[in-house]
Amino acid sequence: MLIWGSKGKMVAAGDGGTQYCDVCKEQRSFTHFASYKMRHIWFVIRWATGLQYHRRCATCHNLYDMPAPVQTDGLSGEAVKSKSPVPFFDRWGWAIAAGAIVLFIASAVVTGNREKAEEKLLIAAPKAGDIYQVAVDRFIPEAESQSLGSDYGVVRVERVDGDRVTLSLPRTVYNRAKGARQDISSGQARSDTYYEGTIEMPLATLKARHDDGAISNVVR
What we know:
This protein is of the alpha+beta class. It folds into 2 domains: about 5-100, no CATH class; about 125-220, no CATH class. The chain contains 4 helices and 11 strands, in the order ββββββαβαββαβαβ. The strands form 3 sheets. Strands 10-9-8-7-11 form a 5-stranded antiparallel beta sheet. A hairpin with a 6-residue loop joins β5 (about 70) and β6 (about 80). The two termini are about 40 Å apart.
């Protein structure tokens, strides 16, 4: 769901000094203000548009449009860029959100790479009891599919004899990976009754299955 919109805002922009007021017809104290549109997506990704400066009479409160006020350097007397009166988050909310998204993606990539490296070590040295979430049609190409798409299931390492690995096969497979993940997280895949039948494959084949993505999760 996309939530977006805009809101008109006005903020104080400094002392305007004493000036002639066209309404009061005499010298009055003025305050500078700035108005703008704060646009947003999901209230967090923000940016400001349509910035306009005003001066307001302290007595009659009438607003007069004006160009951006110019500040001067106290030593040289030269004009310097004035600080924006728009709050930081209204100006840079979009950049903060973009930065957070980039950090999240980078963190996910780093975490994913670390998990893959850890999985490779576990696959290279399998132990009885290890559990693999697999895409059945790629892990056991000769198996008959039970759905129109890929079948997903959980296999367990029963024993390792040198470079030969014996794996137990699941009684149930799913047409979505979510079902296999839930069986692992709930502990069902730890039960002996979860499996029926075994297959044996060389360790090199097991490593190749992991490399080509047939094994998507390794739990020890």
